[in-house]
Amino acid sequence: MQNLCLFNTRTVSLGNLTGANLVRRFAIDIDKQIIYLLTSHSIYSLTLDDDKLKSIYTSPDKTTTIEDLCYLSEINHLSLGLSNGDLLSLQFEDDLEENINTIGTLEECIHELKLSPDQQILIAVTNTKVLLLSTNNDYEPIAETLLDTNEFGEQQLVNVGWGSKTTQFHGSVGKKAALESTVTVPTQVRSSDDDGRSHIVWRDDGDLFSISFISLTNQWRTIKIFNKQGQLQSTNESPLNGCIESAIAWKISGELIGAAMRFNNGQKLTISFLEKNGLKHGELVLNTTGYVEHLAWNKDSTILAIVVRQQNDSSLQLWSSSNYHWYLKQSFPFPSVNIQAIQWDIDIANKLHFITNNGQYRSMTWSWTSQVSYTNTRSLVFLLDGCHLFVSDFTHSSIPPPISSYEILCPLSILAIASDDDHDKLILILSDRSLAICGKSSSLTDYRTIIHLSEIKSAHYVTSLISSSDSPIKNIHNATHFRLINQQFFFIEESHLHIYNLETKTKTSLLLNFQCLTTAIDNEETKHLYLQDEHGKIFRVDNNELHARMHFPRPCSHFSVVLNEQFVGLTENYRLYLNTSELAHNCNSYFIHDKTILVYSTLQHQLAFRSLINNQQTAEISYRRTGK
């Protein structure tokens, strides 16, 4: 029961890389923190350490465009695919002009290049064929395969006829009806939103890859799965009353291939999931009139990023699946902006890089957080799902999501929440920057509270609204770390900590000379907000000033302020700290009970209790579920 919380953003202007000189694709050198940007005729490098942008290659032939690029980190090469079919290699040892080599040619426009996860194989694809090259042997060809064939593949499915027409009773029409062949033909052979290009996705182990292409024979988009030797394994089943669109991504864990598909004559847009044998295995239905332009799984397969395009507007959506339900965790609108390309970071699981057509490089980083509001009499857990906020009241029952004790329904997607435990107040931050303020009275017309559990006598209702024009938030893409203390609403935007008074409608701002990693609130009678920087240093906000309090040995992804201004912190590497002392190096979660007891669990299925009064371990319980 966790939400995605945005905690870090970055925007870099790309100068005049707009219009005719628009960035179309990009590649990342993670080690050197360099972004390679591709326009129609040039390659640029953006150094993230100093935001320096420079041109590193320009095509001498203006009649030929650069279609795609791929960075090979092990040999420090940049491979380019051209519209005339040429494959180029840029080496970065010395002078670039002396290190531009032609690898080969496919004699027709290269649509995409993709490197295998182990960086051993480079694939180039056109609209009719695919070429596999070995990066270890000076780009020696491994295989060249035609795409548009009638073959299904080596993993041909065997149909034994159970439930088919031939095994059914046909009454008066006789046995001849069972022998009549039926051919399923999609009523819509090709989507009007299809980009017309071939696309490549690798499975994370590097044994299989998939290509989505448009057949020149029947104009259907088809998905074929190959092994790393270039041998066809399987082909997707044709969608009934629908068609496949161009967006495709292979889940990093290797289970499923996600592809945009339309059904019901184009009225139903889905992300359909295919197994490696080409058969459909579930779907995610998207409620939009636009189309899916980009699709990408993050490093650990917990987040599916979807870019939905509608005319000149784009929307970045982050989805997550749990308990057989898909949750829309984040939805950021980009009005009058097109997202050109997206790519998840390979080191930081929840960091997304993307380029927009208004000449900007952006990165956004999220963290998984359990958002809980608890007092001596009540314990609530909040779960976001698009326009819905599910609230589970554990005082009465432990209902698993997507079921809840009650839910709040808003007209727009909810990006974040901020709660005040003492005053039972809740603020919903909506995707248009407006703030929906919740209390205990009846809700506004466009906002509904639906109670699912009869035992619930007190629920949250949207009682007032701060519109987007009056919102203290200026840019919803850069606003992070939302907190609420009494009547003060805290958030960070553009390197400033903003404090907005809900009663007086006034805002004060503090300049931060550090990047805030996470925040916490103490449990004292007079509450304070605490900030942790990227190095683990803790600051307290007091009278609109920052005061340094303590420094963790390592930055902690989660921390709490406990009795007598002590600090408990947990790193992403399972290290648990009490102030500067390490309590455990195998902790996966912790909880503060009654302000005096620290309870934490370990990777070895142990539960430990430690007193925060005398700093002594009071008990330890070991339990392992056997499944019996």
From TrEMBL:
User: What are the recorded GO MF terms, alphabetically?
Assistant: tRNA binding
Sorted alphabetically, the keyword list is: Cytoplasm, tRNA processing
- Boundaries of every ELP1 first N-terminal beta-propeller domain copy: 1-345
Q: What InterPro entries does this protein map onto?
A: Beta-prop_ELP1_1st, Beta-prop_ELP1_2nd, Elp1, Quino_amine_DH_bsu
Specify the signal sequence span: none
A GO CC annotation given for this chain: cytosol
> Which Pfam families does the protein's record reference?
Beta-prop_ELP1_1st, Beta-prop_ELP1_2nd
Main localization is: cytoplasm
GO BP: tRNA wobble base 5-methoxycarbonylmethyl-2-thiouridinylation
* Locations listed in the record: Cytoplasm
UniProt entry tagged with the keyword Cytoplasm:
yes
Q: In which pathway does it act?
A: tRNA modification; 5-methoxycarbonylmethyl-2-thiouridine-tRNA biosynthesis
Task: Say which domain of life the source belongs to.
Answer: Eukaryota
Show where the ELP1 N-terminal second beta-propeller domain sits. Answer: 385-619
User: Which family is it part of?
Assistant: Belongs to the ELP1/IKA1 family.
> Which PANTHER family would you find in this protein's record?
ELONGATOR COMPLEX PROTEIN 1
Name by which UniProt lists this protein: Elongator complex protein 1
Which organism is the protein's source? Adineta steineri
